[in-house]
Amino acid sequence: MPSYVVGHKTPDTDSIVSAIALSYLKNQIGEEVVPVRQGVITPETNFILETFKMEEPILKNTFAGENIYIVDYSDRALAPDDLDDATVLGIVDHHKLGDITTSAPLECWIRPVGCSNTIIKEMYDYHKVDIPKNIAGIMMCAILSDTVIFKSPTCTPIDIAAVEELAAIAEIEDFKALAIEMFKVKSAVEGTPVRDLVLRDFKDFVMSGNKVGVGQLEAVDGSVFEAIKTDLMADLNALKAEGERHSMILLLTDIMKEGSEILIVSDDETLVERAFGVTPEDNKAWLEGVLSRKKQIIPQLEKALS
Predict the structure, then answer these.
(1) 3-class DSSP state for residue 249?
(2) 173, 208: one domain
(3) 70 with 171, same domain?
(4) Cβ atoms of residues 297 and 290 within 8 Å
(5) CA-CA distance, 184 to 218, in Å (whole number)?
(6) CA-to-CA distance for 82 and 80, rounded, in angstroms?
(7) Number of domains composing the chain
């Protein structure tokens, strides 16, 4: 019976690519492992997989009685609903340590780097397994996505070195040009349902007993969001009620301006001011230099709600 590698709910590129890359590595060292996903892949992820002619992982949401590896998270809120009935064999992640616990020892690779695929690259090196050209390509793109082409404060020299090595394996001469094309796909909003946009890169967190949903949309030019902000706010209100959330937050990140506009619906009117030192107008505020949800949003919200 195979084991599975599964990323988080509403998977982003890092989550999907990590499942593919770790599964290949595990199979090369003697384990039967299958990559799976918990949700629909994003347009950016689809672009990357098509570019390197890779199949998307199968959709799987139940894991009772099965063995799993977890990638790109360690928070229970992002895990399969039947996690307690599965056996977690390992975790590979680059976020803060979450609240998933296990009853037996497990393999654990957690590093303060910009992307889970940077860690998986280290795992390939550790096991002395060659990375196939197409897998190197998608891993490279995942790191460029998560680090916002090295602009994110989460980016480390280890991430940059990994991209350069993976680009050489994938035979990509101008990886930044490919990354710009990737982000143009990620920026596309026209014709996409608002709910799909809000949930494109979305995670729920539990902060001091409060359920807080935080999504992020990234664009090369943030002006693409202007015409849909009213609709985005309406859907944040709807999702807050549907999920019985304390707060719903959406970051509209402008890569070229290197900052994000925050849209917020919350039971706490002073949350943004306490967390980020700015006062919203019409439930919106600009956060200069903010590109990373992981490093520049979640810790500040947790502190404000503690």
Answers:
(1) strand
(2) no
(3) yes
(4) yes
(5) 9
(6) 5
(7) 2
The residue with tokens 């209100």 is 237
State which residues form the domain around 114: 3-184
Give the number of other Cβ atoms within 10 Å of residue 91's Cβ.
22
Q: In this structure, is residue 13 part of a structural domain?
A: yes
Listed residues 162, 184, 206: the one ending a domain: 184
Query: What does pTM read for this prediction?
Result: 0.85
For 200-241, the DSSP string reads TTEEEEEETTEEEEEEEEEESSGGGGGGGHHHHHHHHHHHHH
Adjacent-strand bridge partners of 110:
93
Asked if residue 245 is part of any domain, the answer here is yes
State the DSSP string of 71-95. ES---GGGS-TTGGGSEEEEEEESS
Half-sphere exposure of residue 71: CA atoms within 13 angstroms, side-chain side? 30
Are both 9 and 158 inside the same structural domain? Answer: yes
pLDDT digits (tens, 9 = 90+) for 248-303: 999 999 998 999 999 999 999 999 999 999 999 999 999 999 999 999 999 999 99
Token reading at 289: 């230099």
User: For residue 189, is it within any domain?
Assistant: no
